[in-house]
Design goal:
The chain has helices at about 5-25, 45-60, 75-85, 105-110, 125-130, 140-150, 170-180, 195-200, 245-250, 265-290, and strands at about 5, 35-40, 60-70, 90-95, 160-165, 185-190, 205, 225-230, 230-235, 240, 255. By secondary structure, the protein is an alpha/beta fold. Pathway: One-carbon metabolism; tetrahydrofolate interconversion.
């Protein structure tokens, strides 16, 4: 019988860990605070920010929001961003993307303290994924996938894994995280020839390519674990993933739905990363507060 992996259950479990960690921080007089930084008014960014703010505040964390007009000058934005980064009362920063074309992402990332980078966007944090450094703050979507697999006691050691999608924020870091668990990983993309051949013998398939029905029954062997990271919308406005869920669910041993799967975990992972970020900064913060 197929197990439907429930993102809300995973988020609830992770929330309990967060609450316990918050009690420890607050016993030291430290209440974690996150800064949300957004340029412009893209609807997707606003929706994500609002959902994240709601989640952080529900967990008892402080939030601060910084909004800039679309045409803010590079100088003005970078100056203010540097001030936010140097504010010792702020333990984590979430920069909403994409940025306007005139704001250089590389310069923004260079300013940010790696221990405040709760979405793992800095090259230094991505490098820590490569070296399996426990101090890393990896991108939240790959972290959400790993939390899902851990919650359902899925051991990747020795497994053949196919990751479809090779972006710098999902596919590539996720492939590395899985390799760090001693899985054998094949990474594909939308242009991979004979994708069925790359998937049909995999023990685990993760699709993060952003294409409706990219993964169908022919891609999935009996008993495979299928994780759908894709977020797409049909012409009718219905949210769906990359996987043809109805065609695949009876072949899989475990499968994530869309919605209600990985997407239900990501904002909670960001909150967990804020806890980690605060822990990294605890000693210098305590010192400065004396």
């Amino acid at each position: 019988m197929t197990v439907i992996m429930d993102g809300k259950k995973v988020a609830a479990h992770l929330s309990e860990e967060i609450k316990q960690a918050l009690e420890v921080s607050e016993s030291h007089g430290i209440k974690p605070k996150v800064a949300f930084v957004r340029i412009g008014d893209l609807s997707d960014s606003i929706s994500y920010e609002n959902a994240a703010v709601k989640r952080f505040e529900k967990l008892g964390m402080d939030t601060e929001q910084y909004h800039f007009p679309e045409d803010v000058s590079t100088k003005v934005f970078l100056t203010k961003f540097r001030e936010i980064n140097e504010d010792y009362s702020i333990h984590g920063i979430l920069l909403l993307q994409p940025l306007p074309k005139h704001i250089p992402m590389k310069r923004v990332a260079e300013i940010m303290n790696s221990f405040k980078d709760i979405d793992g966007m800095k090259a230094s944090n991505l490098g820590k994924v490569l070296t399996n450094d426990p101090d890393r703050l990896e991108p939240c979507t790959p972290a959400a996938v790993m939390n899902m697999l851990d919650f359902y006691d899925i051991d990747l050691k020795g497994k053949n894994v196919t990751v479809v999608g090779a972006s710098a924020v999902v596919g590539k870091p996720l492939s590395l995280l899985m390799m760090n668990r001693e899985a054998t990983v094949t990474t594909c993309n939308l242009y991979t020839e004979n994708l069925v051949d790359k998937c049909k013998d995999a023990d685990v398939i993760v699709s993060a390519a952003g294409a409706i029905n990219l993964i169908d029954a022919e891609h999935v062997k009996e008993g495979a674990i299928v994780v759908d990271v894709g977020i797409n919308f049909t012409e009718e406005g219905k949210m769906v993933g990359d996987v043809n869920y109805e065609a695949v669910k009876d072949k899989a041993s475990f499968i994530t739905p869309v919605p209600g799967g990985i997407g239900a975990i990501t904002t909670t992972v960001l909150a967990y990363h804020l806890v980690k970020a605060t822990e990294h900064q605890k000693e210098p913060v305590l010192f400065l507060e004396k």
